[in-house]
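Q: Structure tokens for this one, please.
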Amino acid sequence: MADSSNAPLLQSRSSYGSTDKTSTRHDSIDSEAAGEIRPSRDVEDDVLPETSTIGRNLSWQSAYILVISRVVGSGIFATPGTIVQSVGSAGLSLSLWVVGAFIAACGLAVSLEFGCMLPRSGGDKVYLEFAYRRPRLLASTLFAMYAVLLGFTASNCIIFSKYALFALGVEATDVLSKSLAVGLLTFVCITHSVFPKAGVKIQDVLGWIKIGIIVFMILSGFYVVIFRPNTTSAPLTHQLAWEHLWEETSWNWGVIATSLFKVFYSFAGLDNAANVMNEVKQPVRTLRSVALTALGTACGLYMLVNIAYFLVVPIEDIRGSGELIAALFFERLFGEKFGRVVLPTAVALSSVGNVMVVAFAMARMKQEIARQGFLPYSSLLSSSRPFNSPMGGFIIHYIPSFLVMILPPSDSIYSLILDIDGYAAQLIGLAVAIGLVKLRFQRPDLKRPFKAWMPAVSIRIAMSCALIVAPFFRPPDYEGEVFYALYAVFSWVILVGGVGYWYLWTRAVPRWRGTRLQEETCVLEDGTTITKLSYS
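A: Here is the predicted structure, written as tokens:
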């Protein structure tokens, strides 16, 4: 099948890199009933590849690292242990990783169909705008609120600071941890903004180091089996024998569902390359192959590292330690002193790589939001000057990430913010999947270089619905002081608030002023096409 990046589907009516410095068009967006809406930077043109003013500099390798470093984060050192602790046995734990990989593949199928059909930077922003055009600007507004308010990289910055201080033997005080976390975020944003090419090379190197560390762990586990060294790390192959594989399994559905959600979250980020499509060489072909390769890599690494854990660490110790499984693994293989340095260093490096690729992609997405005209100083924030990088996008990304790390007075509030982010992401994912089904019926004419299997789309929708409803069921033996579904309620409040904000500035204010909300398409000096919104 020919790559759509080589053969345009329609004749382009606008160019990202145009040199025309004048306004090109004014369009009313409050006359939907009259059917006269012809938005500038036409949504219909999203089917066309768009080249960033930065250029298409991301090779297949860089795009692959952008995805795999986002997916395989520091959780690989902790999540397997927490799942075993919950479900009780190696057999059910490994089964959940297989099921979780299948569910992740279903979600990826949705993203791939959209990404290959609409090869533009922005990811879910582009998909929602294309699928939900009425009411005009509602989908864009809601996604902008979600991305700007909740799109941050604070968690891995904090993980880095704690593990780096532990590796150095320094007490992790609150001030020191937050300072180091902010320092990492600042370093990443400045590097990607001022030295964009160096930033890509650094994150590529860190990505391969992370993969190398995990492969080393896997080989170490199998080394114990093959060579049987005379140490405390003697192989525990009996734990994977069928008669012991399912011992002490907890078949409680609530426990299984919670563990499955953790596995599902471990595959988050397979669509990360879709956020930077304007900078990827041969975007459609690369997106398709990179995402599928990353899915296969993640599945293989997760399964093999789980097996390595079971070959080295006694199942009883795993049940008792939970997220400390990797610490026990290194300690049994290399001794307590060496393990106490290797593990935190590995986790810290993994966190840095994750922060770099997430910030890289999120900055591009937020630059697309600025190009839509929703933010103050959109012309400044949309420009790629002076370093030929989306510095404005990094500024938008830096501010909420900085505030989330500095302001929360306790870990519980910080965890609440992260839960709100995760819950809101499921609402976005559900809307994207339903939008795909909607377009299948309404727009069968669209060229689809990749077509998702409809049962896979249905599974993605069902999974999102389950994740959205689950928080409202009271957990067994819950004794918390706050409402157990508080993060879900806050997410819905943000959504409703977004609808109210959209109605205020697109409907109420124009009627009160007796004006109309206009879109003006113009081109910045660096060639970036943006939309300016005004009342007239």
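A few notes: The first helix runs from residue 60 to 71. Confidence is low (pLDDT under 50) at residues 1-40.
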